[in-house]
Amino acid sequence: MNVEQISIFIENKSGRLAEITKVLGDAGVNIRALSLADTSDFGILRLIVNDRETAKQVLKERGFTVSKTEVVAVEVPDRPGGLSQILQALDRDQINVEYMYAFVERCGENAVIIFRFDETAKAISTLTKNGFTVLEGARLYAM
Amino acid sequence: MSYYNEEFETLPRQALEALQLKRLQATVARVCASVPFYRQSFDRAGITPDSVKSLADLQRLPFTLKQDMRDSYPYGLFAAPMEEIVRIHASSGTTGKPTVVGYTRKDIDTWSELMARSFAAAGVHRGDIIHNSYGYGLFTGGLGAHYGAEKLGASVIPMSGGNTKKQIMIMKDFGSTVLTCTPSYSLFMAEAAREEGVDFRQLKLHVGIFGAEPWSEAMRGEIEEKLNLCAIDIYGLSEIMGPGVAIECREAKKGLHIWEDHFIPEIIDPETGAVLPEGKLGELVITTITKEGIPLIRYRTRDITSLTYEPCACGRTHARLTRMTGRSDDMLIIRGVNVFPSQIESILMGIEGVEPHYVLIVDRKDNLDSLEVQVEVDERLFSDEIKVLQSLSQRIEKEIKDILGISCRVRLVEPQTITRSEGKAKRVIDNRKSS
Ligand SMILES: [Zn+2]
């Protein structure tokens, strides 16, 4: 059920994001979703890509620090309060969301949100129990 | 427990200090009588041979610098006529002329004994086969270890450095039990052996005696793991004698015993020259008290360490030096506090248990010194969560504040941002000098 995200450490200086997207583009890697969290000094770029191994390899060759992280992709019902229902369900089971961000493409009618939990397995069981659709990694990468 | 010279190695402090005073007085008299450099520098300081009434008077004597040895090139500081000198060594100066040292027959005997004591402290016995990969030649390493090994009665293989394939073959075929070389060469050999299909862990080596370059506790762990032996730190410098000035004992492996019946150690503030109390980190200063060829008074080694007189598990009464953690030339003064890059390195290692790449950037803003510590974030330090990385840098800032008493700013940077020249990282950028 889990989705593999690659996380990249970047310093806050101009041109770093452009370099990463160029390196990935040149290697034929497609970015499916992305989020950048930053502080005044540094940032963490989180990506869902179609080809994780190639992405990791080309970025490492360029000297970037890269790690893999397990995240969860959830379909958000296309109606008002859709995301809020997901968060409420997680909150009831006291599951912390470390961070979350939106997927670039839609899955049919629905938007997709990527979640990073501290307890991934428990989170997935809460989500499925409450009737939300958790997407397989393979499906996302190929989307 | 095995000593080479039990009586002197375990001499009670009082007797040891009485012996030191007697020998110091004789050395001061000797250099006053036979070395013009010392006669002049003592004159300027108002010192006569009978000025030294107690060990505390040592502090009144002027220092000897490496530059003084260069200025006296080649034989100016010799205190014995050439008829009595039986050996000459020289240290490789990276720039200019080397520093030259001469040994009388008695000096060679003393050196051999101190090296034999060092081997014994490391757990080496008669019957051991010592594979000596320190370089033979002008450098003191090879011959120093060689004479000590013979004095102890162990079997020594005079390998010298280089020709790694042959080293590995001999080590394997001859059944070497003790390895003496630089710590980095030991790891190089282990790697080369692996490529040759020889497993270092299957060799008979039980101890390695490593010195002649600074190394860390982390490197000790790596060597002990890869070579399957007990790694012992040895210290020496040609100006003072060569290898065997100080060594860790196998029992405690906590600090290097300096042979105090032949050398008097002091720790000074490299900036002011003031003698620092026990336990404080500073520059090691050594006075030789039995040497005839080239006795040195308060020689500034430029090595950074601290000194303890606490009793040791091994029973030796001689003071211990902590592992050498850099050179006094690297010292920074930040807001009046002496800071050695190695102190920050060990704080970083203590936090993550890894040797990180870092650089210290010192600046002056509004007449106030500022310190920024840049730490490269590699895969071991990296997290995909901002708060984890932020708490890492806050922890480093707090530790540095707690241990060194200075506030700094930690900045996490991408790998390879810190300039490396010839494989060695530049540790300090001091922008105050240019402004
Ligand atoms: Zn000891």
Automatic annotation (TrEMBL), chain A:
Pfam families per the UniProt record, alphabetical: ACT_8
Residues of the ACT domain: 5-81
Gene3D superfamilies: VC0802-like (3.30.2130.10)
SUPFAM superfamilies assigned to the protein according to its UniProt record, in alphabetical order: ACT-like
Protein name: Amino acid-binding protein
Organism: Geobacter hydrogenophilus
From TrEMBL, chain B:
Catalytic reaction list: 2-phenylacetate + ATP + CoA = phenylacetyl-CoA + AMP + diphosphate
Cell cycle as UniProt keyword: no
Enzyme class: ligase
Keywords from the named record: Ligase, Nucleotide-binding
Pfam family of the protein (one): AMP-binding
A Gene Ontology biological process term: phenylacetate catabolic process
GO molecular function: nucleotide binding; phenylacetate-CoA ligase activity
UniProt EC number: 6.2.1.30
Domain called AMP-dependent ligase C-terminal: residue spans: 336-432
InterPro entries documented for this protein: Adenylate-forming_Reductase, AMP-bd_C_sf, AMP-dep_Lig_C, AMP-dep_synth/lig_dom, ANL_N_sf, PA_CoA_ligase
Pathways involved: Aromatic compound metabolism; phenylacetate degradation
Keyword Nucleotide-binding: yes
Domain AMP-dependent synthetase/ligase: 80-287
Family: Belongs to the phenylacetyl-CoA ligase family.
Assembly and oligomerization: Monomer.
Biological role stated in the UniProt entry: Catalyzes the activation of phenylacetic acid (PA) to phenylacetyl-CoA (PA-CoA).
Name of this chain's protein: Phenylacetate-coenzyme A ligase
Native species: Geobacter hydrogenophilus
